[in-house]
Amino acid sequence: MDTFTITFIGGGNMARSLIGGLIADGTPVERIRVSDPSAEQRSQLQGLFGIATFADNHDAIAGADVIVLAVKPQIMQAVATGLAPALSGVKPLLLSIAAGIRSTDLHRWLGGHVALVRTMPNTPALVRSGATGLFARKDVSREQRDLAETILRAVGLTLWVDNEDLIDSVTAVSGSGPAYFFLIMEAMEEAAIQLGLDEESARLLTLETALGAARMALESDVGPATLRQRVTSPGGTTERAIGEMQEADIKGIFAKALTAARDRSRELSDLLGSD
Prior knowledge:
Blueprint: E1 6-9, H1 13-24, E2 32-35, H2 39-49, E3 52-54, H3 57-61, E4 66-69, H4 76-87, E5 93-96, H5 103-109, E6 115-120, E7 130-136, H6 142-153, E8 156-160, H7 166-175, H8 177-194, H9 199-219, H10 224-230, H11 237-247, H12 250-273
Parallel strand pairs: 1-2, 1-4, 2-3, 4-5, 5-6, 7-8
Antiparallel strand pairs: 6-7
Helix pairs in contact: 7-12, 8-9
């Protein structure tokens, strides 16, 4: 990574998390640049990381080997079409971390003839525990794929998909997924308070239980169903609670919820990709 220059277009939270992860992994700060229209944002990034910042996108991408498009989806078309003239005749790796923008649309806005990888990270990347799905177009080389994976792996797990349509499924599972777990935590905290625990105790017990369960699942050689069975004693308290959840069709609820999220991702791609 110390031989590549990386430019971030947009200096928001996800860009900051990636920059922090790259520096922690040993990428020299002089190899990282950020372009952002906000003077306050640029000042904060300089103070946090000591990296070069730019107000102009064209200045920032000059000579860059990797360009990370980290702007809001709603302004991606304007940003991409603005970059297109500067990309003519050069072929840096383009990484998009914007939700809902298909690679075919982004490729067209960028003027074509660019090596483009579409990614779907999630917010736990902010604490270097993210999960990112990646899709590479055919003109991306093996070296560029490895580079893309190295960059995103700086903030967590990476997973390639061969079919871009599966990015919508990744969005439904991991992209939106943190909110599902936050909702479960919220429900458990509220129920614990109703059972007589104070707010602080309810919160700590819920969060540590969630963290411990996730660690057990990550480190185990068996799946969640087996782990659940192991902690569910016949006739015990856990079995009673699980029975209530199954009666409410919790698996069906999640299946409907994730399908709805996937379908909405497709709808947004259609909307954002229209010229």
